Each structure stands twice: as structure tokens, then as C-alpha cells.
Amino acid sequence: MARAQEQNPTEIEVEVSDGMIEESRDVFEEEAERALGGLKPTENAGEAAAAELDAEVQRHLAELAARQPRTTKEPTELDLRNLNDEEIDRALEPLPKLDIWAGATEAEAAEDLTGWQEKRGVALELGPPVVTLGPEARPPEGTTPEKAEEREDPLLQQAREITRAAGTFPIVRVIKELGLDIAAAQKIRKSLAREGFIDARGQIIALKGQTTGRPTGAKQEAAEVAAAPPEAPAEVIAEKPLPPAPEAAAPGTRPAEQPAQAVELRPDTVAQLPQEARRNYGSLPTREKGWFTVAREKVARLLGRREQDPIQAEAAAKTYFQEQDRLFNAESRGLEGLQRRHGETQTKLQGLEQQLDRMTERENVAVEAALAALAGVKGISPQQIEDKRRQIGDQIRAKEARLRSQIEGLQALVADLGTKIETTGKARKRFEEARKKARQKLDEAVARAVNDNHGNAELARGGMEKCDSKIEEQQGVIRELDRKIAALQEKKQALQTEHAGAEALKIFDELIAEAQGEKRKAEETIKALETAKSRGDAMIGRVEVSNEKLVADLSIEKINKLIQNPGTEWIIPLLSPEKLMELPEKDQRAILGNADYQRALLPKFDIPKNSALLDKLIDDRLVPSREQLRAQGILKKPEAPKAPAAKAETETGGVPETAQADFWQTKLGELGRERGIELRLPTALAGLELTGGEAADLVYDQTVERMERSMAGAKLNETQREGLLKVLAELLRALFGVESRATSVTQKMHTRPESRVKFGAVAKDWNASHPTQKIKPETILAQGSRDLSPAGVKAKLLEQLLQERGGKLTPDDLRSVSEFVAKLEGPAAEQPTVAAAA
Amino acid sequence: MKQTSINDPATQNIIAAAKTAIARAKEVNKASEVLIAKLHKDYDEIEARHKEIEQQLTADVQGIIQQMDKDTLQFLADMSSMGGQA
Q: Which of A13, A223, A297, B24 lies at a C-alpha separation of 20 to 30 Å from A432?
């Protein structure tokens, strides 16, 4: 309760018991003084007047207290009790609606807006003008006003008006709530969109002769309208419609040749973009490009380079996902900012409401206290005080009304922001769903390809197994024929010794010739089988390399599904170390608990870049120590010091474990030029990261293919392939070193103890050191034998000698064979180099 | 010393065994030829299928990327329409 105390007749000091006046004096002192300025003090203020004023103060305070938790509508109801008739009429009058004819010029719109603001007594910051749709909309000048329901097609009429407005307003938005229900607003929106006037967001489509793909008539009309007003403000920004998605490229075409569709953003749209996006947009060389175009162009470049290579296409998709991530994150930050602003605005709004309540209360209290104090002042009549109270009350109410209007405006903006956040949230969710769907589709497509590839590899493997068994059978046949030929020759010799008849000898000659003929045929067949096997081998190598790359880009969810599926668990050996590490630990444990999988997977960890991953597996006790793994033969043993010659050859200036195909291509090109052979990686690999072994494989395949093409499609025979391998062996050794990763070519060249190259090298050394040789190891190679193991070689050599010696071997023969085999089995350090073999 | 004769059983056995071996060799050679031809045919088919798989995957990925283009543009458009008037 307020209480006034007079201390000096010439000075008025106001004190309010609850401290509110003290608190508000600074704020309202000036206003109170101004309000009281016209009053002259009187000597005799009556007790009754003072009591009346006091009662008035009490009542007013009670009312103010009751208004504390009110809503925005309450003041109007409350105020009515204290308002005079005029004030009541004004309060009951509906708030004026901003009503601008859709065809108004900018000046007219501005005039209407000013008038409206004056009527409301406030200057709300509503942003750009809006266009009212509804029955109140004024008809064009010079036309007879029509009621909306009398129009032939009112919605379409309004649509046209909107279009015209597009030429005169800085920004035009369709707002549905003014005079129209939701259904009608939506109908309008559809009509506008159908006619090509607005896009799906309700934005006016810019009409600078752009191809919109929308109905030509409407587009033309809209363009004319947009171009018509000479004073069309510069702020009318052309916003191009969404660019059409690129057409599916026909096989062999290069999508990159299609110009990237630019999204030109309006400055006000750019201003609303998150900071990062805005920066990106600003840093573009030309404003013609939207910042998003950068991502599209990157993808287009990738696609353009992919030719027919699915790996590249798949990599493009992967890059695209990354670009989308960046976009999504940037936009999400924007949304978060918006949500924060929304929260802040709501808080601000609540604060304002509370502030308004407090201010009103303080003002009333201050005034009443001042008036109460005046009641005792000489020369001021109660009537004067009452008049002043009324006058001040009016001012306070007017001020409150102004503030209420501002709060209402703020509430509208908060609601608008809330709607936008909701809409944006939905858009974000839609985008997330779309991404999820795209990821699933990509997973499915890749998994399908991997599965089909695997099926093909299995078929090829089946063929190779058949080859192996057939080669074995053929070798048996040859051995059998050799034995029979030897027996026939022996018998023929006996017949000759015993002077058998020519007829008898002829039978033997014919049989021997026939057997030898079949033997030759069998030998040729073995070569043909070897060729077929090599083809299958190369095919499997290609498919496996391709599958490994594809699996590396599958999502971990998909991989999880595949490895749990008994039909697709074959994918496990194709996993990259990174993917393996992404799996749950229990799956890692299950996989690495399997010896076969260990053998397939752990060697991939045995390179420097994956060393830390292997350490983690060892620390987690998922696999034994490195030493144990080496002892088990799962990891390679540490390299033995190389012989000086070999060492010199491998010193190629620090060849990396993996590098971009371009790097390998440069190296290969140099080496090839030095040796007069063209070594080329497939161009589609440009930009791909390859190991040296993979590069070696691909060079081999590419070279074979090129040579076969140059031979009008004829296939290289085994000898030609052998020669090519030897040349490549030398080159690849010089480039990658002997310890290149095990791939089919390098396996052939370096890692298999029974390899032909090694055998050839030992044979060459042998021939050089045994000029009067008794055995001819090179003939084994010439026969195309694949069994170059020491035991196989021994059997072959003995068989060879038996044949030459007519079934009888000397101790010297046996010694030579043993000596050669021992050399073949000899320690690695003593073995001749591959270069020597070539 | 017994004279070797073309007609004696041992000689006939050698001849018969040689003929059997030759016949067997012919059979195996023939079977190998058939196998080789079949393998090359299979490999041709596998290569063709592999090419198809690659083309299909390329087309699938292109389709996915196109859809991603649309989704991204739509997302961008939706987000760009956010107001900044509050």
C-alpha cells in the first residue's frame, strides 16, 4: 500500500510502503511531473477527498494485482470497466487489418502501410510488406468492384494479382490467413503453382526468361507482367526454379560435359544462410554459381572421369554423401541457430509481458501516490485531482496499448518462427530419410554387384579346378604313353635284334608314332589348359580387387547383415582393416577367432599404415602377438638382409606402400621407356589409391590385353605370356621391390617358391655351371608344367632321363638330379635374382 | 634262347597295352579339348556378365546420385525458405 508523507509544503517527497514507487520513480518521475505540471497547489484539501483518493488507489491496486497473470486479451476486458464510452468504442473496434490491394504500386502499398501503422498507433517491424488475399482486396482501378463470390474464378483472379504484385513489391508472399481459410489458401497456392507463378515454397518464380519447364502461357504472361512496370525495384530478385536433375548418362557418355545447373540465391536468402554456407557462396568466383553447385560439380567431375568404371561411380556417390554431410551439418547449425533465436525471442516476449505488467502497476502506484500527496496540498481541488487522474490514466492506458501491440507483433513473429522451425525440422527429417534411402539403395546396388562378382569368381574358380584336375590327368596320360612307348621301343629293338620280319616291325613303328602323336597332342592340350587357367586366374584377380574396393565402401550396417548371413559370409575375407575395426567387438572376436579368416585378413594389417590397428587387436587380445602370428605364417617374417645386387635394384627412392594410380603410372612410364615397352595403367583408375601389388597386377592385365588386341584378338600363348611376365618381373621388381604385396603377378614372380621365374633362374645358373649337362630343366618349362615343386621337378627330370637313357639311369644321373633339386630348395639368400632369370 | 615273336603273348600284351594307352590318351585329349572350349565359352560369358554387373552398378549409382541431387536441392530450397524476420 502506498503512503504519502508531507515533509515540506514546497517539496513533495513520495514514499510507497512496498517500495514500488521508489523503484519506478526514475522511470516515471518525468512523466508524473509533466502530468502534474498544470496543477496549482491549494491550501485546503478536504478529508473526504483524501479518503476518496485513497479508496481509488486501493481499488486500482487491487485491479492491477488481479491482472498479474493475465493473457494478452485480458487487458481489453479489464480496461472496459474503467473506460469512458469513447474509449470503450475504440477498444471494441477491431484492430485494423493491413489491407493492400494486390495490384497496388509500391507507393500505394507504402501509403497503406503507413496509414495502418498510424491507425494502430505503432510502427511494427513486420518486415517486408505482405499482400492480402481476400474479399477486402481492392479491385484494380477503373474496374467495377466485384464481390469475390461473383467472380468467375476468384482464386485464379487472385493468382494473377499476386503475379502482378511480383513486379511491384520487394518480396511477395502468399499469406493464407488473411480472409481465407486454409483450404482456399492451399487451392490458391496450387493454382499459382500450376500456372507457373510460384514454386512449391510459395515463392514467386523469377521471370527473366528462364526455362522453368512450366506452362508456357502462364510463364509468358508472368514474364510480361514482371517486365512491365518501369519502376520495378531492383530488389525484385530473379530466383531460378530448381534446376532439373541431370539426365541419366548413356553408357560411354560423360555427364561432366553437361553444364552444371547453377542455383542462384537471392541476397536475402543468402543472408539467411548459415555462416559457412554464406562464406562458401561469397567465395565463389562468380555469383552465377550457387554454393551448392560446388558439390555438384565435384560429383560431376568424378562422374565424368568414371568412364565405365563402377568403382569410380561408387566413389562419386561416396564423395557425394560426404558433401551432403557438410551441407546437412551447415544447415543443421542454421536450424540450431534459429531454434536458439526462437527460444530467446520467447523469453524476451515473456519478459516484456512481465515488464509491461510491472510498469503499469508502478505507474499507477506512482501516480496514485503523487495524487494522494497532492490531496493535502493547498489550492488543488479534489475535482482537479480527479481530472488529472483520469488524464494520466488515459495516458497510461494508451502507453499500455502501444506496448501490448508491440507484444502482439512479437507474438506473431514468434509464432511465425515456430512455424518455420517446424517446417525446417520436417525438411531436415525428409532429407535425413532421403539420405538413408539413398544409402540403402547404394548398399543394395553394391552388395548385388559384389554378390554377382563373387558368383562369377566362383564359376571361374570351378573352371580352374577342372583345369587342374584335367592337367593332372593329361600328365598321367603322358607318363603312361611314355612308358608304353619305351616298352614298344624295347620290344621293337628286340625284334630287330632277332631279325623279325618287316611287317612286325612296321606294327611297332606305327604304334610308337601314334603314341608319340597322342603324347604331343596331350602336351599341347596341357598348354591350352594352362592358358585357360591363366585367363580364369586373371579374371578372379580382377573381380577380387574390384570386390575389395566395393566392400570397403559398404555401410557398416550392410556389412553386419552380410556377415551374419550364412549365404554371404564369404564377404568377410574381403573386409578392409578399417571396416573390420568398425564392427562390434564381439563380431571382430568371432571373425578373428577363425584361423582361415585370420589368414585372409591379418596380412592386410601388416603394412605401416595399419600397424596401429593391429596393435589394438593385439592389445584387445583378439589376436596373438606379432611374433606368434609370424611363427604361424600369418604375417610375413621380417625381411632378411638382401644381397647387394638385389638391394641396389630395390633402392628406387622410397616407393610408398600405397599411392595414387597417377604416381604408379609415372614410374611405370619411366621404366617402360627405358626398356622400350609401353606400360600403362587403365585410365579409369586415375585418382585411385593403389598398392604397388595392385598396380603390378593391373599393368600385367592391361599389357596382355593390349598385346592381344594388337594381334587382332588372338590370345597370347603361354610362352608369350611367360616372356611378358619375365620382362614385367624385372620392371616391377625394380619399381616395387621383391617384397611387393602378394597379388597374382607378384605371387607368380616373387612369393611362390615353386615359381617359374625362380625355377628358370636356377636352371639358367645350372646350365651355366654345368656345360656338359645331363639334365635339361628348361624343357620342363617348355612343356608348360605347372608343378615346379622340388618333388615334381625331380620326378619330371628322372622321367626325362629315363626316356633319354631308354629306361636305365646311371648314378651320375641321379646325382645330377639331386644336385639340381637341392639348388632349387636352397636358401633364399643363395637363390639367383629374378633379374638374372630375365 | 627263346626267339621274340610278334605273336608271343608278352609281345601281344605290350601291343595291347600300348593300344589301350593310346585309346585312353585319345579319349582324354578329346575330353580336354571339349573342356577347354567350354571353359573359354564360360569365361567369355563370365566376362560379359562382369561387364554387365559393372554397367548395372554404374547405372544404379548414377540413378542414386541423381536422386541425391534432387533431394539435396529440395533440402537446400526448403532450408533457404527459412525466414529471418524474428
A: A297
Task: Report the domain count for chain A.
Answer: 5
* Residues A613 and A655 both lie in one domain: no
Q: Are residues A567 and A685 in the same domain?
A: no
Please check whether residues A538 and A615 belong to one and the same domain: yes
Interface confidence (ipTM) of the complex:
0.86
Query: Is residue A215 one of the residues assigned to a domain?
Result: yes
**Residue ranges making up the domain that contains A781:** 756-837
Residues 189-228 of A with CB under 8 A from B: 199-203
Q: What is the pLDDT of residues A407-426, one digit of tens each?
A: 777 777 778 778 877 887 88
Residues A488 and A579 in one domain: yes
Residue A105, CB-side half-sphere exposure with 13 Å CA sphere: 8
- Judged by a CB distance cut-off of 8 A, whether residue A333 touches chain B is no
In a domain, A268, yes or no: no
Instruction: Give residue for cell 501491440.
Output: A405
State the count of interchain CB pairs (< 8 A) between A and B: 275
Question: pLDDT below 50 — which residues of chain A?
Answer: 1-54, 56-58, 60-61, 64-65, 67-84, 87-103, 120-153, 155, 159, 162-182, 184-185, 197-266, 269, 273-274, 276-277, 280-281, 283-308, 641-653, 738-754, 828-838
Contacts with B69 from chain A: Cβ below 8 Å? 245-246, 296
State whether B5 and A500 contact (CB < 8 Å).
yes
Q: Where does a domain end: A188, A210, A227?
A: A227
- The pTM score is 0.45
Q: How far is CA A147 from the centre of its chain?
A: 54
Q: Are residues A472 and A608 in the same domain?
A: yes
Residues on chain A touching B47 (C-beta within 8 angstroms): 539
**A328:B75 CB<8 A:** yes
Residues A115 and A219 in one domain: yes
**Nearest-CA distance B13 → chain A (Å):** 10
Whether residue A389 lies inside any domain: the answer is yes
Could you give the CA distance from residue A735 to residue A727 in angstroms, rounded to a whole number? Answer: 13
Spatial CA neighbour of A535 closest among A460, A455, A458, A453: A460
Q: Same structural domain for residues A368 and A395?
A: yes
